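Q&A log
Question type: sequence-to-structure
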Amino acid sequence: MGTMNLETEWSGVGERIRRARVGKGISVRELARRIDVSASHVSQVERGLASFSVRALYNVVSILGITMDSLFEDSALDARPARVEDEVAATAQDGQLDEAGIVLRSGARPSMQLQSGPRWERLTARPEVGAEFIEVIYAPAPGASAPEDFIRHVGREYGIITQGTLSVQVGFGQADMHVGDSIAFDSSIPHRFWNQTPQEVKAVWFVWDGAAEGMAVDFPGAASSSHHHTLS
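Response status: OK
Response body:
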């Protein structure tokens, strides 16, 4: 896990969001309106003084047309997405795979702490195109209630619990997942995850952003009061 504190992490994340927003010609006020937060909060995020929730962050990357992977702080390698030709060239001769950007050491993971939520650690040395491969760490929260917001976005998610017990809800279905339990579902279905135990929970997630491109369907009740603040 990286040793950067929240402000240091989000100074980089916020700056990348700011550059993408300016590049799209979207004002701070307009972005705030579209993700349902205050303009001052967006401004604070861009200056590294605050962070977005999971729901808000998925909305931001969708509106700005960027990848979630690209928001993590830069690793020792450059931030270019992984390319086959680079990997072929790097492995065509004797050398260290971590230096080639193929192996990522645990202490070098790019990471991001979400607002009042989990910590994401990217498991790839470079950003992936159309996919995220991450470990998510959920802090202990004995008796915690489910998050108010559901998340909904294009893609398909696969996850496995590696430590603790994670509470999950996908649509109207719920489950408590334990170590070794796995899950796979279409990300367009409203979903949320939370830790309500005294122990830290860890899960490894693979999100294929392009899996359901153009195939998302309306989920019954997604716009109702029981599924408010979902993505569209």
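Response note: The domain at 130-232 is CATH 2.60.120.10 (Jelly Rolls).
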